[in-house]
TrEMBL record:
Pfam families: Peptidase_M48. Belongs to the peptidase M48B family. It comes from Tianweitania sediminis. The active site is at residue 131. The chain crosses the membrane at residues 7-24, 30-48, 141-163, 175-196. This is Protease HtpX homolog.
Length: 321
């Protein structure tokens, strides 16, 4: 089903590129747009995950540089029978997290420093279990391709503004075609994000609760993340709004409503669904010093003077310090 959904998404994106190209430059513009879309689709399949991680300035960590955080992800992956994903930390005070990758064998999970500081170990485990659920459900391919191509659509709208008015470009509709392209492109980017069904968040919440064995910890984490996301601006996400649907909670400011234009369900509805779950087998608590959390001075590194960024500045202290 996920492959069908991805194929439909790619087909829609290709048709959209060709349509906007036709409005800008006629048949020649449509041909150029088709070649551009085909190349972008191929490039996105192999590289979209790396681009998204680079947009968020994510830094890869390992067992030595972030032992407790890495240990939690490692043991959750074992519980879910998944390959160990790459683990990243984003130096951002807004609590949030996302997963990316074209398949479970090439997956990555990322959490912000704000999340690791503000959530306790059980809550972090719930969040990372949710992200691993996206990996297991193979949502991440669709999510990352959407993030890359939605941004490309917006750029195509800007292209229409600068080059669409040329009288020699065979534009069949003239300035009207240019205006339509400028208006349709950003709206289409929004529609593509909405096309990624919001029900996947409910599905990932439930499967994440099953993986970690603690739906109430995930519910508590969602509450903390939602409050933090509305109070703290995520500059990188604001600069790249096409990536918003990838995060566990919408990182953009001013989008609290569970309406047609929201990329996420209302947090209150997700929390209620988790709190209503009574058929989840309780899992082990992720406490400091347990097999799920290797002892460390703080969740960001093995010592008090260096963190995953390799600097000499003391990293912020986390909930396990």
């Amino acid at each position: 089903m996920n492959m069908i959904r991805t194929a439909m998404l790619l087909a829609f994106m290709t048709a959209l590129f060709m349509g906007v190209g036709y409005l800008i430059g006629g048949t020649s513009g449509m041909a150029i747009a088709f070649l551009f879309a085909a190349g972008m689709n191929l490039f996105s399949y192999w590289n979209a995950d790396k681009m998204v991680l680079r947009m968020q300035h994510a830094m890869e960590v390992d067992r030595a540089s972030a032992p407790e955080y890495y240990g939690i992800v490692e043991n959750l992956a074992q519980r879910a029978n998944l390959p160990m994903p790459k683990v990243y930390i984003i130096d951002n005070d807004q609590p949030n997290a996302f997963a990316t990758g074209r398949n479970p064998e090439n997956a990555a999970v990322a959490a912000t420093t704000g999340l690791l500081r503000r959530l306790n170990a059980d809550e972090v485990a719930g969040v990372m279990a949710h992200e691993l659920a996206h990996v297991q459900n193979r949502d991440t391919l669709t999510m990352t391709i959407t993030a890359t191509l939605a941004g490309a659509i917006s750029m195509l709208g800007n292209f229409a503004f600068f080059f669409g008015g040329n009288r020699d470009n065979n534009n069949p509709l003239g300035i009207i075609g240019v205006l339509v392209a400028m208006i349709v492109a950003p709206l289409a980017a929004m529609i593509v994000q909405m096309a990624i069904s919001r029900t996947r968040e409910y599905s990932a919440d439930r499967r994440g609760a099953e993986i970690c064995g603690n739906p109430h910890a995930l519910a508590s984490a969602l509450n903390k993340i939602a409050r933090g996301a509305h109070q703290i601006v995520n500059v990188d996400a604001e600069r790249n709004p096409a990536t918003a649907h990838m995060f566990i909670i919408n990182p953009l400011s001013g989008q609290r409503m569970d309406n047609l234009f929201s990329t996420h369900p209302a947090t209150e509805n997700r929390i209620a669904a988790l709190q209503a779950m009574t058929d989840i087998q309780p899992g082990p608590r992720f406490e400091r010093g347990s097999s799920f959390s290797r002892p460390a001075a703080n969740p960001f590194g093995g010592g008090s003077t260096s963190g995953p960024w390799g600097g000499a500045q003391k990293p912020p202290r986390g909930p396990w310090s």
